[in-house]
């Protein structure tokens, strides 16, 4: 008799060059108790390497900071959407900017969503809840 398959939680790839922001996002998700596995990348290049790694499960969703040194978040988004093996992954962009030009650029590059980074704990909790809702809408369950 075979063992029943264990359902693994969905994975979200968080891409942000700020170690402090990555830590805050990790803590916010831990406090919610959501059944989500987080994977982190600190640069656009690392994100693409992670996404293309054959030995890692494909994330259910990516959350990418718009403004990063080197390969920007928008460049990563465009690369994902042009890659036949990655194009179906939903990508939510996050940024400290709420400028309409940044939001429009993300939309034009086919982002699934755009969230302005919060400046306080309550905002971080709302952002985490919004990301959960995004994930549920694309994955179906977490």
Structural overview:
This protein has 142 residues and is an alpha/beta fold. The chain is 43% helix and 18% strand. It has 5 helices and 5 strands; from the N terminus they run βαβαβαβαβα. Strands 2-1-3-4-5 form a 5-stranded parallel beta sheet, with helices on both faces. The longest helix is centred in the C-terminal third of the chain and has 19 residues. The model has no long low-confidence stretch (mean pLDDT 87).
Compile the SSE list and pairings.
Blueprint lengths: L9 E6 L3 H14 L3 E6 L2 H9 L8 E5 L7 H10 L8 E5 L4 H9 L4 E4 L4 H19 L3
Parallel strand pairs: 1-2, 1-3, 3-4, 4-5
List the total number of helices.
5
The CATH fourth-level homologous superfamily: Response regulator
Mean pLDDT: 87
Derived from helix and strand composition plus strand pairing, the structural class reads alpha/beta
Q: What is the number of E strands? A: 5
* Percent in helix: 40-55%
Over all CA atoms, what is the radius of gyration?
15 Å
Q: Outline the biggest β-sheet.
A: 5 strands, parallel
Whole-number tally of structural domains:
1
Name of the level-1 CATH class: Alpha Beta
Strand order of the largest sheet: 2-1-3-4-5
């Amino acid at each position: 008799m075979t063992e029943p398959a264990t359902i693994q939680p969905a994975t979200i790839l968080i891409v942000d060059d700020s170690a402090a922001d990555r830590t805050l996002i990790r803590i916010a998700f831990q406090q919610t108790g959501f059944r989500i596995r987080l994977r982190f990348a600190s640069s656009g290049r690392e994100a693409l390497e992670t996404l293309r790694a054959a030995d890692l499960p494909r994330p259910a969703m990516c959350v990418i900071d718009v403004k990063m040194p080197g390969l920007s978040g928008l460049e990563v988004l465009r690369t994902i959407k042009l890659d036949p093996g990655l194009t179906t992954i939903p990508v939510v962009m996050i940024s400290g900017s709420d400028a309409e030009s940044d939001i429009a650029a993300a939309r034009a590059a086919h982002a699934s969503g755009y969230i302005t980074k919060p400046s306080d704990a309550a905002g971080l909790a709302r952002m985490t809840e919004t990301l959960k809702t995004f994930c549920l809408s694309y994955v179906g369950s977490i």
